[in-house]
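[09:14] KT: can someone run the structure on this one? pasting the chain below
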Amino acid sequence: MSEGKPRKGKFGRAIIIVLVIIVVFVCGLFVSNYMPDGWTSKTDTVELGFKDIGELVTQEVDAREIESYDGDPAKIFGISLPFTQSHYIYSYIVVIKAGFNFEEISCDVNDTTKTITVDLPEPYIISSDIDNDSFETYEEENNVFDPFTPEISNELEQEMKDKAENDAIDNGLYEKATTNAETLIKSMIAQNYDIDSDSEDAYTVVINTTSYTGSDVSSAS
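[09:31] RB: done, structure tokens below
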């Protein structure tokens, strides 16, 4: 009786091993049949990496803007009185940060053509803030008849931000943000795919970008 028990144990273990093999085989068929065409587990890894980043600053600019203010003079019988208006010329540095929402990036891998295509959304200004420690004044005349109120200050600061943003955009803010984003994207892809070697198995990365003007730009490496 004692000799029969080990045989049952071995037979039971054999059945378990066979069942495990069947389960693994079935799972493999399920994955191969239901995974979207052109996508691989590596692609999913890259895609998830983009999603995890979320909103990302890829370019920062410090722009010093000069603002001038000439108030309204006091009037008597419609006549402006001299020396009754405030006058200021001053400047601040506006810190502008531009980047992308990486959650909107899409990535497609074509294993046949060895091409990885990435669609990058439009860049945008993430934040624009005045550096209060950067204040410099050049001319200052504060007249009691025409006080420089906080409301006026806030309005001028907003005008300063708007001007700084426009100046930064005109000087290539979005283009630089896009270039930096492309470098980051290629670095992330290189962690899962060969894109830098001369091997025939290396992939080519094509990044489609949309500038803020709406024109399409495509770069490849």
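[09:33] KT: thanks! Strands lie at 55-70, 75-76, 79-80, 87-101, 106-110, 115-119, 124-141, 204-210, 216-220.
[09:34] RB: yep, looked fine to me
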